[in-house]
Design a protein that fits this description.
With 252 residues, the chain is an alpha/beta fold. Helix content is 37%, strand content 26%.
């Protein structure tokens, strides 16, 4: 469902050019949960920014659901981002003046979707994430974990093809991090959500089914969990991170 082919990304001009991505290629199948790892400056956030259409590639091709995003106009890109991509943030980005139900359905309401359809979609995704009982409440009336579920519901309410998360646990304590990762796993397994997560944290990455490691803008290695226990997978991740070299504190 996502095909990244020989993409390159340059910053700067003249005698000062930085190559952030160097002929990166991979594909993501529908329903996969993939983590992207690497040290600071490896290109992982640049890669996510290009896939999310926040940035553009200098060369190569990115296709999602058969659509080459490099060929889309600004107007079509905005629609593509709204309909195809969901975003999971470190903070919940919920509006305090709206109920949980209104927060989840906000993007649909702004596109003038039929109110009955908005309500049905919100109810459907809320039921799958176990938060139907808090829909009438405001964000300040619910727990942090419930806010996380509401934010994830908002990211999927329009039936988005791909969920993107950039360091989603970076600002969270261990309990909130574990809760969010379990929610994302539930979305992946029960709702068949396709997730692409950038993280520097081996514990977070151990929840994924496949990990792509970047080094100096190139794909360095790939690790597939298969049927292994998550704790075993976690230690395999640490082994690969050690092979990346450099300042290991940047990647674990």
């Amino acid at each position: 469902m996502l095909q990244v082919t020989n993409i390159e990304k340059y910053y700067g001009n003249g005698g000062s050019v930085t190559k952030a991505l160097n002929r990166v290629s991979f594909r993501v199948e529908d329903g996969e949960f993939i983590a992207i790892m690497g040290a600071s400056g490896s290109g992982k956030t640049t890669l996510l920014n290009c896939i999310s259409t926040i940035d553009t590639v200098s060369a190569g091709q990115i296709c999602l659901d058969g659509i080459d995003i490099s060929t889309l106009s600004s107007a079509k890109l905005a629609r593509f981002r709204r309909e195809k991509l969901g975003f999971v943030f470190q903070d919940f980005n919920l509006l305090d003046t709206l109920t949980i139900e209104e927060n989840i359905g906000l993007a649909l309401s702004l596109t003038h979707t039929d109110p009955g359809s908005v309500q049905k979609k919100v109810q459907d995704v809320a039921q799958k994430l176990g938060i139907t009982d808090i829909l009438p409440k405001f964000p300040y009336q619910v727990s942090g974990g419930q806010k996380q579920r509401a934010a994830c519901a908002r990211a999927m309410v329009a039936g988005q093809s791909l969920l993107l998360a950039d360091e989603p646990t970076g600002a969270l304590d261990s309990r909130a991090s574990k809760n969010l990762l379990e929610i994302m796993t539930q979305m992946n397994q029960a709702m068949h959500a396709t997730i692409l997560m950038v993280t520097h944290d081996a514990y977070s990455a151990s929840y994924a089914s496949r990990i792509l490691f970047l080094k100096d803008g190139r794909l360095f290695n790939e690790l597939i969990r298969g049927g292994r226990d998550r704790s075993v997978f976690y230690h395999e991740i640490l082994d690969v991170l050690a092979l990346l070299g450099g300042d290991i504190s940047d990647v674990i």
